[in-house]
Each structure stands twice: as structure tokens, then as C-alpha cells.
Specification:
The chain has about 300 residues and is mainly alpha-helical. It has 14 helices and no strands.
Length: about 300
């Protein structure tokens, strides 16, 4: 009797561990950003969508993001085990194997695209499919191990969720969602290159050609600053096309000027060197910065 109870408890605990591992395989932190930006795209669109369709559509977009994450971990399992930032992921720790990740990712991909098509429209489902495939084949398989521009080009996949949110509501692509895309696309390089500065040893172990390793610290700092400055015309664009009011414009300008200041402070340190606290500050603020920009779209919509 006691033995049966112990065995049942063990099976239950193993099931919980496996469930957590599959959830981690989907990169939940990335999923949360996808859900938020997709929701902003949907809520700021001029057409209304029923609550029921909105929730299920965003759910399937999130599942699609999880599918991309799982397929990424499947392909990069050999790299993940070499890096302190990723060595505790489910495959390197042995909680899941590569075949499980591949099958899980493939199933989620199909379910997410078909589910989104059912609850929204063909255009949204097609963009979600392109997003998953771009992240897997263009970024993960092709670019990441070959060029320091992996983050720049690969960032396109992370910039598409708010576009999908917009098309869920409108079934149309216009200039407004393009501005969403451009904001995330131009934000991505400075965000990830700041991370790559203080995680350079990790990328070196995995032989990933991140900018600090291929072009040096000074060039990386310069590029971080350049991309932060490029955010100025990008965040002004929604106002120029009449999508937002001065509430968004002035608030986003303040946030962007401070971001440029942080990037300049990082750049202005000793030549070919960087201060780790400054790099971490740029990285941390960049996350808050992007979040607040999209909050401003919602605030502007309300007022």
C-alpha cells in the first residue's frame, strides 16, 4: 500500500517536472512580450474584435511563439550546453531530449497557425507561419552561427507579433502596423548587443559570431549608440502618419533621449573597453523602454 502511494507520488512529481520543462521549452519570457505587443496591435486597430476571438487569437499567437522557442532550443541544444546563460534549459539538463523538443515544436507550429486561421483570418495565420519559419530557418539555422548581423536581420521575426495583432482586427496591412514593426526591429540590435558585451565569454565558448567577438568592443559600443539614435525617427513615424497624438510623441521622445544618453554613456567609456554596470543598465532599460513605448500606444488610444 505504502509502495503504491510512493510510486503514484513519484509519477505525479515526474509529470510536474515534465510539464515545467515543456513550458520552459516555449521561452515563457519571450512569450509574454509577444502576447503584450500582439495585444497592443489588436487593441489599437480601428476595427473591433469580439472578446472571445481576441483571447483565442492572441493565445494561438503565443503558442506560435512557443513553437519557435521550442524549435530554436531543439536546433541549438549543442550550443546551449556550453553557455552559462542557457545551460540550465530543459535539453542540456537532460529533462527533455531533442526529439521531444522537435515533435513538440512542430505540433505547436501546426496548431498555432491553424488555430489562428480559424479564429481570425488567413493573413494573420500566414504572417504567424512566416514568423515561425523565419525564426527557425533564417535566424537560428542560417544566420546565428555565420554572421554578427544575426541579431539585426533575425530581429524581424520578433517584430511581427504587433503586426499580427493588427491584422487579426483588420485583415489588412497598412502603415500603422509597419511602425510597430520598425520600432521593435530597430530596438533589437542595441538591446542584444548590450547583452553580448557582458556575455561575450558565453558566446565565445559557443563560437557564436556576436559583434564584440568579430568586430571588437569599440565597434559594438558605436553600433549600440547608432541604433539608439535611429530610434528617434522610428518613434516619430507613428505621429507623422497621424496614428498617434502628441501624448505619445513627447512621452516617447523623453524615453528615447534617455535611452540615447545611456548608450552614449556606455560608448564614452575608455576606448576598446566597457564598464559592465553601464552595459547592464542599457540592457535593463531597453526592456523597460520597449514596454513603455507600447504602453504609450494604449494610453494614446484611450485619450
Amino acid at each position: 500500500m505504502t509502495s503504491n502511494i510512493i510510486n503514484k507520488k513519484s509519477v505525479f512529481e515526474n509529470s510536474i517536472v515534465n510539464l515545467k520543462s515543456f513550458i520552459l521549452l516555449m521561452k515563457p519570457r519571450v512569450m509574454s512580450l509577444v502576447i503584450f505587443t500582439c495585444a497592443v496591435g489588436l487593441l489599437t486597430a480601428p476595427e473591433n474584435v469580439t472578446f472571445y476571438n481576441s483571447v483565442f487569437s492572441i493565445f494561438f499567437v503565443a503558442i506560435g511563439a512557443g513553437a519557435a522557442g521550442a524549435l530554436n532550443m531543439w536546433y541549438e541544444a549543442d550550443l546551449d550546453k556550453l553557455m552559462t546563460r542557457t545551460c540550465l534549459r530543459p535539453i542540456p539538463t537532460g529533462k527533455l531530449n531533442k526529439n521531444q523538443a522537435l515533435i513538440f515544436g512542430a505540433i505547436l507550429s501546426v496548431v498555432s497557425v491553424l488555430g489562428l486561421y480559424y479564429f481570425s483570418n488567413f493573413l494573420s495565420a500566414a504572417i504567424l507561419f512566416i514568423t515561425i519559419m523565419f525564426y527557425l530557418f533564417v535566424y537560428t539555422v542560417w544566420l546565428k552561427r555565420k554572421t554578427p548581423q544575426n541579431i539585426v536581420i533575425g530581429g524581424a521575426s520578433g517584430a511581427l507579433p504587433p503586426v499580427i495583432g493588427w491584422t487579426i482586427a483588420t485583415n489588412d496591412l497598412t502603415m500603422e502596423p509597419i511602425t510597430f514593426f520598425l520600432i521593435i526591429f530597430f530596438w533589437t540590435p542595441s538591446h542584444f548587443w548590450a547583452l553580448s558585451l557582458f556575455k561575450a565569454d558565453d558566446y565565445k565558448k559557443a563560437n557564436i559570431p556576436m559583434l564584440p567577438l568579430t568586430n571588437g568592443i569599440e565597434n559594438t559600443k558605436k553600433n549600440i549608440l547608432i541604433y539608439s539614435i535611429l530610434m528617434l525617427p522610428v518613434i516619430i513615424a507613428p505621429y507623422l502618419i497621424g496614428f498617434v497624438s502628441k501624448i505619445y510623441l513627447f512621452s516617447s521622445l523623453i524615453l528615447t533621449v534617455y535611452y540615447i544618453y545611456l548608450c552614449y554613456d556606455l560608448y564614452n567609456f575608455k576606448k576598446n573597453k566597457f564598464e559592465i554596470t553601464k552595459a547592464k543598465k542599457v540592457f535593463s532599460y531597453s526592456i523597460l523602454y520597449l514596454f513603455l513605448l507600447f504602453v504609450l500606444f494604449l494610453v494614446d488610444k484611450i485619450f
